[in-house]
Automatic annotation (TrEMBL):
Source superkingdom: Eukaryota
Tagged with keyword DNA-binding: no
Region called Disordered, residue ranges: 996-1046, 1224-1243
Name of this chain's protein: EGF-like domain-containing protein
InterPro entries for the chain: 6-blade_b-propeller_TolB-like, Cueball_EGF_LRP_Nidogen, EGF, Growth_fac_rcpt_cys_sf, LDLR_classB_rpt
Keyword Glycoprotein attributed: yes
Placement of LDL-receptor class B repeats on the sequence: 131-176, 177-220, 482-526, 804-847, 848-890
Compositional bias ranges of the Low complexity kind: 996-1028
PANTHER family in alphabetical order: VITELLOGENIN RECEPTOR-LIKE PROTEIN-RELATED-RELATED
UniProt keyword annotations, A-Z: Disulfide bond, EGF-like domain, Glycoprotein, Membrane, Repeat, Signal, Transmembrane, Transmembrane helix
Listed Pfam families: Ldl_recept_b
Ranges that cross the membrane: 1053-1077
Length: 1243
C-alpha cells in the first residue's frame, strides 16, 4: 500500500534562514535534522538545516533551513550525493521518506518508502554503491534492507533476526562489504556481518551500555560510536581492536554521529547543541546551537563521502528485486515471501503469498495484514478463508497451518491451499485454544464441561488433562517452560496454572473485576504474564508474584497478545461493534501506545495472532536461560553454542570456565569508583593492572575509601542511600549505615581516622534541601554522630589527625572549602573565593599543603593549611575535574568526568601530566583514594591508645583531644563516658569487679576566667588537675590515658594551686605515688595455665592477641627526655627495667617538639604527668584495646604489621617490645603472648 505524499506534505514551505548576509549555496553541506521546541513562540520551526562547510569539514554559520506547517520530526537522515537524494526517518508516523532533487528546492519531492517502523530509536544507513537502504527496528528485533528505487514498499527483506534483541545503531562500508550494528540486549555488543547479514561476528561485548549510533569511516577503516550512558564518543578498528575513547562529554544526551575527514559530528539534543570534534585528538572544534531547536540526525552531503572509481557490481548483475554489494562482486536477494530462482537473478513466490503478518478472525473469515499494521494505521486486511463461526484460532508457523475452533469442533487448514480439514469433534463449548509447537499438541478448554483437553496433531490422540474446573477459558500454553495457564471462575475470577500433564496445579493470581476477563499472554523476554483486569493492563511473574498495574485498557477489551516487544489488544466499539486493534511498545514495565488500527470492513474480531515462523523456536537460545550458565557475559555464537566472557577487572576463573574472578591488590594502588559501570576498581601502581572489587552488585557508587588495617573497601551508594563495605579477601559485603532511611540523604565522600577506625563522611540531602547536608562520623561498632549540619552540597573530605584538623568542600550556592577540628568545632570557610565546583581534596602531610580540584574552572590549586600561598598547580580544560589524591613522593592523581583515564601530575619545576589506566571500558570515574605503604596520614597519639579513654568517640583536636557521644546522647560529667553508659572496672589489687561511673582525672590547661574555652591553648606551665566542675564544663583534654583512682563516688579531688608551696608538695607526692604504684602493678604477675601474665588496666572488650610476633621485640632500650635538648645525642638510649618497654624518637620528631617540653611529653609519652626532668625516664605500659575493635586477620606473609606498630612507623616513632595493643610480650614456647589481663566492661 502506498501513502500519497502530497496528502501528508501538502503544505510544504521552504524558506531561507540566513544567520549571515549570504545565502547558503547548494552543493556540499552538513545536514542536521531538528525537532523544534514547541513551547517556544519562535516562528518558524525548522525540520532540518544545511550548514555550509569549509574544505576541512568545519561548518560555518551560513545555513539554509526547511520547515513544514505540520508536525514533522525527522530523527534520522542519510544522503546520496551522486543521486541528489536525502533519506529521512520521521518519528511520529514511523515512515522513511526519500527526498529527491534535494539541492533543487523548486522540484523537491518526498516519497514514503517504508512504514510501520519502531519509533525513536530506528536508525538508517545507506549503501550508495548498490543503492540500498538499511534500517534497525528495536521493537521487531531485526535489521531490514529495502531497494528504494521502486514503488513497491514490500520490496524489503529481513536480513538479521536471530540472536538479536534491540538493534540500535547501524553503519555500512560498501567497499569492504561490511554491515555494523549495535544491540542493546542483556549483553550489549557491537556486531559485524556482510551486507547480506551473513558471516556474523561479535566485535565488542564489554564496556558498553547504550551505544545508540555507529558510523563507519571508510577512509581509515575505523568505526565510531556514541554511548549515551557513558557520555563517550569511541572508536575501534573494523575488527574491534584498537578501541579508545575519543572524548567524554559530561551531562550530554548524545544521539547521533557522523564522520568526515578528520572530524566527528555529534548531536546532543539534551543541550540543544551539536559538536564538531577532531577524531584524533578529541579536541572540540566548534559547538553550534540553533535557538529553540533540538538537533538529532546528522549526515554529510558531500562527494568525498562516496569514493570514486569503485566498480558497481550490482549494475552488472541485473537482479530482479534486491542486489547486495560484496567486496568483489554482488549477489541477488529476494524480498520477503520470495525465493531466488536457479538463475540467481530472478525471484519466485515462496509457497504462498503470506509469510509474516497480523492474522485476525471474525465469525466468518480469516484475514491477514502486513506485519507493519501492528504499529501503523492505514494497512488493509486481505481475507483468504471463509469459515462460519470461528471463535478461536492458533498458528503452526513451521508447517504454515492454522488450527481453529467453532461450535462443532477443531479444524486446520494451510496458508498455501486453504483446504479445511477436520481435526476432532468436541462436545462442549470451546472457550480457549492453545498450541504446543514442540510436540504438536492442541489444548482447549470447555467452559460448560469444566475440562481441559488435548489432541495430538500428528497422531489424532485425545485425552482429558483436567476436569471439574470452574468454567475454564482462555488457555495459554508455554512449550519451552512446559506450563499452561487458564482463567477460571464465574464471579471471582482467577488465573491458574499447572504442568502440561495437569500436575502441580496452583492459583497464580486473582482478578479484581467481576466481569469475564480477557485472555492472557506471555512475554518470553521478561518471563512475565500479561492480562486485562478491571480496565487495566496488568503483569506478573509466572508464579503470580510482583503484580503490576502498568496501563489502562479500553472497555470491552476481548483479547490480548504479545509479539516481540509489542503488546496488542482488540476491543469493540459500541454501538457499531467494529473492532479496533491497539498496540503498545513494551519497555520494561512501561507501555508506550502506538497508533490504533481500525478494521471497519471486517466487523467484530474474535481472535488475533501474528504469523511469523520465528516466534515458535524449538528451544531457548543459548544465552536465554540462566545467562547461558555464564557468570557475567554470554555471547550466542549460533542457535546452540555460546561463549562466556568477563568484564573489565575480572578474568576467567581457572577453576570454572564459565565464572569470573578478580585478584585483590594489597599494596600501592589507587581505588576508584566507576559510576557508569557500577564498579569499584583497584588500579595497581606497580603492575598497571585493573582489578575489580568483587561485589555482587554495586549501584551508583559515590565515594570510596580503603581501610588498609582491615583490608576493607568502604563505599557509598546514591541509589541505595547506604554506606557499605566489603573485605577484599572474602568479598563479604556489609551494610554499615542507611543514611537514606535515617536522614533522607545519600553519602558522598569518606575519610578514615586510622587511629580509631572512625569513618568520616559527607552526606547530601535527597529532597534538594539547601541545608539538609551534613558531615558525620561512624564508628566500627555502628555508632553515629553528626558533626556539622545545615550544609548545602558537601562533597570532599580529608583529615589531618596529628593536627586534629578536618577539611571539606561545599559546592552549593556559595561554594567554599571549610576547615574545622575533627570534632566539628571551630569551623570556618577559609577558601571562599575563586571556587565553583570544589570536587576533590588532598593533603600533603610533609609540607602542610592542601590541594583541591574545581570541576568548573578545571584547575588544580594548592595553599598552606591557613589558606595562604594559594597557587594554581595545573589546568585541564574541558576535563570536569573530580577527585584528587596525593603521593608524598611528589605526585598528584586526579579523576575527571571527561577523561577516560587517571591523570598523574609530577610536581616539579615543570609540571608533567601522565595518563594512567587509559581504557575505553572504564566509565565515568568519580572518587579516588590512594594506598601506599609509606603514604598514610600521621596519626594522633592521643586517640591511638585505648580510644583515648573515651567510651564512644575520640576526636583529635587542634590542641588535644575530645570525647563525644553518638546522636541523641550526651557526654557525662567525667568528660569521657556518655550519659547512657556505665563502665565495669576490675581492680588491679584484686579480682573483684566494681561498677562505677567512668571518671577520669585529666590534665588541662589553666584558663583565665575571661578566656574563651574554644581558644584555649597548651602552655609550658605546670598542669593542674581539674575539679569536677572543670571536667563537666570542658571535654577537650590533652591526655587519654591516666585513669582516676577508683573509690567512693563522693570523694573530692584535691585542688592544686599553681605557685603555692603546698600545691607543689602535693603534686610531687601524687606523681611519685602514681609512678611507684603503676610500676608495682606491672611487676605483679601470677601464674595461670602455666604461662606468666601481668595485670593491666583495660576498659574494653577482650580481643585475642596477635600471634607470631618477631623475636626482636625483646630489645630493651628507652628514649630520653632532657631539659637541655642540645645535650642529648640523637636517638640516645639508656637501659630500662625488664618490665618497661622503650620508645625511640627520631631526630625529626625532636626538631618538631623542641622548645615545648610539655607538649613533647604530652604527645610522645602517655604518662607524662608522672615523669620528671631527669636523665633516665621509663614508661609504664598501660595502653588498652580500642573500643569495639576485633582482632584482624594475620596473613601468613605478614603483609602489614599490626595496627599500632604501623601507626607508630608512620609517625616516625619506632616501637619495640610491644604487640598491637601496646602490651609487653614474652616468649612462651614458639608463641608470644601478651602479659596482660583483659578487664571486662559494661557498655
Amino acid at each position: 500500500m502506498r501513502i500519497d505524499a502530497s496528502s501528508i506534505l501538502s503544505c510544504l514551505l521552504v524558506i531561507a534562514f540566513k544567520m549571515k548576509s549570504t545565502t547558503a549555496e547548494s552543493g556540499p553541506a552538513l545536514v542536521v535534522t531538528y525537532i523544534p521546541d514547541r513551547s517556544s513562540l519562535q516562528i518558524p520551526k525548522y525540520s532540518y538545516c544545511r550548514f555550509q562547510i569549509l574544505e576541512s569539514g568545519v561548518p560555518t554559520t551560513t545555513i539554509r533551513c526547511t520547515y513544514f506547517d505540520i508536525s514533522v520530526y525527522f530523527l534520522g537522515v542519510v544522503a546520496d550525493y551522486q543521486s541528489d537524494v536525502l533519506f529521512l526517518y520521521e518519528n511520529i508516523r514511523s515512515i522513511i521518506y526519500m527526498e529527491t532533487n534535494h539541492s533543487q528546492e523548486a522540484i523537491r519531492t518526498w516519497i514514503p518508502i517504508q512504514e510501520g517502523l519502531a519509533g525513536m530509536h530506528t536508525r538508517i544507513a545507506y549503501d550508495w554503491l548498490s543503492k540500498n537502504l538499511y534500517w534497525t527496528d528495536i521493537t521487531y528485533g531485526w535489521i531490514g534492507v529495502i531497494s528504494p528505487r521502486t514503488d513497491d514498499q514490500r520490496r524489503y527483506r529481513i536480513l538479521v533476526h536471530e540472536n538479536i534483541q534491540r538493534p540500535h545503531g547501524i553503519a555500512l562500508d560498501p567497499i569492504q562489504g561490511f554491515l555494523f550494528w549495535t544491540d542493546i540486549d542483556q549483553t550489549v555488543r557491537i556486531e559485524r556481518s556482510s551486507l547480506s547479514g551473513d558471516d556474523r561476528r561479535v566485535l565488542i561485548s564489554s564496556g558498553l551500555i547504550t551505544p545508540y549510533s555507529i558510523v563507519a569511516d571508510i577512509r581509515t577503516q575505523n568505526m565510531f560510536w556514541i554511548d549515551d550512558e557513558k557520555d563517550t564518543i569511541e572508536s575501534a578498528q573494523y575488527d574491534g581492536t584498537g578501541r579508545k575513547i575519543i572524548k567524554r562529554i559530561a551531562h550530554a544526551g548524545l544521539f547521533h554521529l557522523e564522520v568526515f575527514k578528520e572530524l566527528v559530528y555529534v548531536s546532543d539534543p539534551t543541550n540543544k547543541q551539536f559538536y564538531v570534534i577532531n577524531k584524533n585528538t578529541g579536541e572540540t572544534q566548534i559547538a553550534l546551537t540553533l535557538p529553540y531547536h533540538y538537533p538529532y540526525g546528522i549526515t554529510m552531503y558531500h562527494p568525498d563521502v562516496q569514493a570514486a572509481n569503485i566498480t558497481d557490481y550490482c549494475r552488472l548483475r541485473q537482479c530482479s528485486q534486491i542486489c547486495i554489494s560484496k567486496k568483489a562482486g554482488a549477489m541477488c536477494m529476494c524480498k520477503e515471501g520470495f525465493i531466488l530462482s536457479p538463475d540467481g537473478k530472478n525471484c519466485s513466490e515462496d509457497s504462498g503469498p503470506f509469510h509474516r503478518g497480523l492474522v485476525v478472525s471474525n465469525s466468518t473469515s480469516l484475514c491477514i495484514a502486513d506485519i507493519h499494521a501492528i504499529s501503523t494505521s492505514g494497512f488493509n486486511l486481505t481475507c483468504f478463508l471463509l469459515v462460519a463461526g470461528i471463535t478461536h484460532f492458533e498458528l503452526d508457523t513451521i508447517r504454515r497451518e492454522i488450527i481453529f475452533a467453532n461450535n462443532s469442533g477443531l479444524y486446520y487448514t494451510s496458508f498455501d491451499q486453504f483446504t479445511v480439514q477436520n481435526l476432532i469433534a468436541v462436545s462442549g463449548n470451546v472457550s480457549g485454544l492453545a498450541f504446543d509447537w514442540k510436540d504438536r499438541s492442541i489444548y482447549w478448554t470447555e467452559v460448560n464441561t469444566g475440562k481441559i483437553l488435548l489432541v495430538s496433531r500428528d497422531r489424532s490422540i485425545s485425552l482429558t488433562i483436567l476436569s471439574s474446573l470452574a468454567s475454564p477459558r482462555n488457555i495459554l500454553v508455554l512449550p519451552i517452560e512446559r506450563l499452561m495457564f487458564w482463567v477460571s471462575g464465574s464471579h471471582l475470577y482467577k488465573i491458574e496454572s499447572s504442568k502440561l500433564d495437569g500436575t502441580d496445579r496452583r492459583v497464580v493470581t486473582y482478578f479484581s473485576a467481576t466481569t469475564s476477563p480477557a485472555s492472557i499472554s506471555f512475554d518470553p523476554s521478561s518471563q512475565r504474564l500479561y492480562f486485562v483486569d478491571d480496565s487495566y493492563i496488568k503483569t506478573c511473574n509466572l508464579n503470580g508474584s510482583d503484580v503490576q498495574k502498568i496501563s489502562t485498557a479500553p472497555s470491552n477489551t476481548e483479547s490480548i497478545y504479545i509479539y516481540k516487544a509489542y503488546l496488542l489488544l482488540h476491543y469493540r466499539s459500541w454501538p457499531s461493534l467494529s473492532s479496533t486493534i491497539k498496540s503498545f511498545v513494551i519497555e520494561g514495565l512501561n507501555l508506550t501506545e502506538k497508533s490504533p488500527s481500525q478494521f471497519t470492513s471486517i466487523g467484530s474480531i474474535t481472535d488475533m495472532k501474528v504469523f511469523d515462523e520465528r516466534v515458535q523456536p524449538s528451544g531457548k537460545g543459548p544465552c536465554d536461560e540462566m545467562n547461558g550458565g555464564c557468570e557475567q557475559i554470554c555471547i550466542a555464537t549460533g542457535l546452540v553454542n555460546r561463549v562466556c566472557r568477563c568484564q573489565l577487572g575480572f578474568k576467567t576463573d581457572p577453576a570454572n570456565a564459565n565464572g569470573c574472578s578478580s585478584s585483590p591488590v594489597y599494596n600501592n594502588f589507587l581505588l576508584v569508583s566507576d559510576w557508569t559501570n557500577d564498579m569499584i576498581y583497584q588500579l595497581s601502581l606497580e603492575t598497571n593492572d585493573v582489578q575489580a572489587v568483587d561485589v555482587k552488585k554495586i549501584k551508583d557508587p559515590t565515594g570510596v575509601a580503603y581501610d588498609y588495617i582491615r583490608k576493607t573497601v568502604i563505599w557509598g551508594s546514591s541509589n541505595l542511600q547506604q554506606i557499605l563495605s566489603v573485605n577484599i579477601n572474602a568479598s563479604i559485603e556489609m551494610l554499615l549505615f542507611p543514611t537514606g532511611d535515617r536522614y533522607n540523604t545519600f553519602p558522598d565522600r569518606f575519610a578514615i581516622d586510622f587511629a580509631t577506625g572512625n569513618i568520616f563522611y559527607t552526606a547530601v540531602s535527597l529532597n534538594g534541601s539547601a541545608s539538609g547536608g551534613y558531615i558525620a562520623v561512624l564508628s566500627l561498632s555502628g555508632r553515629h554522630k553528626k558533626l556539622i549540619t545545615e550544609l548545602e552540597q558537601p562533597r570532599a573530605i580529608v583529615l589531618y589527625p596529628s593536627k586534629g584538623l578536618m577539611f571539606w568542600t561545599d559546592h552549593g550556592t556559595y561554594p567554599y572549602i571549610g576547615k574545622s577540628a575533627m570534632n566539628g568545632q571551630n569551623k570556618i570557610a577559609f577558601i571562599n573565593t575563586g571556587v565553583t565546583w570544589p570536587n576533590g581534596l588532598a593533603l600533603d602531610y610533609k609540607n602542610d599543603r592542601l590541594y583541591w580540584t574545581d570541576g568548573s574552572t578545571n584547575r588544580v590549586e594548592s595553599c598552606k593549611l591557613d589558606g595562604t600561598e594559594r597557587t594554581i598547580v595545573f589546568v585541564d580544560s574541558e576535563a570536569h575535574l573530580m577527585d584528587i589524591a596525593y603521593d608524598n613522593a611528589g605526585y598528584l592523581y586526579y579523576t575527571a568526568w571527561n577523561r577516560p583515564y587517571i591523570t598523574k601530575l609530577v610536581l616539579s619545576q615543570t609540571i608533567q601530566a601522565v595518563h594512567l589506566f587509559e581504557n575505553a571500558e572504564l566509565g565515568r570515574l568519580d572518587d579516588l583514594d590512594i594506598y601506599l605503604l609509606d603514604n598514610q596520614p600521621p596519626p594522633n597519639i592521643l586517640c591511638s591508645y585505648n580510644n583515648g579513654n573515651c567510651s564512644t568517640f575520640c576526636f583529635p583536636t587542634m590542641d588535644g583531644r575530645s570525647c563525644s557521644c553518638e546522636d541523641l546522647d550526651s557526654i557525662s560529667a567525667d568528660g569521657v563516658t556518655c550519659s547512657s553508659e556505665t563502665t565495669t572496672y576490675r581492680s588491679t589489687a584484686s579480682s573483684t569487679t566494681v561498677k562505677t561511673k567512668s571518671t577520669m582525672v585529666l590534665p588541662t590547661t589553666p584558663s583565665s576566667p575571661t578566656q574563651d574555652s574554644s581558644t584555649t591553648k597548651t602552655t609550658k606551665t605546670t598542669a593542674r588537675l581539674p575539679t569536677t566542675e572543670n571536667v563537666t564544663s570542658s571535654t577537650r583534654v590533652a591526655d587519654p590515658l591516666t585513669p582516676e583512682p577508683t573509690g567512693d563516688n563522693n570523694q573530692k579531688l584535691i585542688p592544686i594551686v599553681a605557685g603555692s608551696a603546698g600545691g607543689i608538695v602535693v603534686l610531687i607526692a601524687i606523681v611519685a605515688t602514681i609512678f611507684i604504684t603503676r610500676c608495682m602493678i606491672l611487676r605483679k604477675t601470677h601464674k595461670q595455665g602455666g604461662r606468666e601474665q601481668s595485670m593491666s588496666w583495660n576498659r574494653d572488650i577482650e580481643i585475642q592477641p596477635r600471634r607470631n610476633e618477631p623475636s626482636e621485640v625483646a630489645d630493651r632500650s628507652i628514649s630520653v627526655v632532657s631539659d637541655d635538648y642540645d645535650t642529648i645525642q640523637p636517638n640516645e638510649v639508656y637501659s630500662c627495667p625488664d618490665y618497661l618497654t622503650p620508645r625511640i624518637y627520631s631526630d625529626e620528631f625532636r626538631e618538631q617538639t623542641a622548645g615545648n617540653e610539655l607538649e613533647y611529653n604530652r604527645v610522645g609519652n602517655p604518662d607524662y604527668e608522672t615523669l620528671t626532668k631527669s636523665k633516665e625516664l621509663a614508661y609504664s605500659q598501660t595502653a588498652g584495646v580500642h573500643k569495639g575493635r576485633v582482632n584482624d586477620y594475620e596473613s601468613p606473609d605478614r603483609r602489614l604489621e599490626n595496627e599500632y606498630t604501623h601507626l607508630m612507623k608512620i609517625a616516625k616513632l619506632p616501637v619495640r617490645g610491644e604487640n598491637r595493643f601496646g602490651e609487653e610480650t614474652k616468649s612462651v614456647g614458639s608463641e608470644h603472648m601478651p602479659m596482660g589481663q583483659v578487664v571486662e566492661q559494661d557498655s
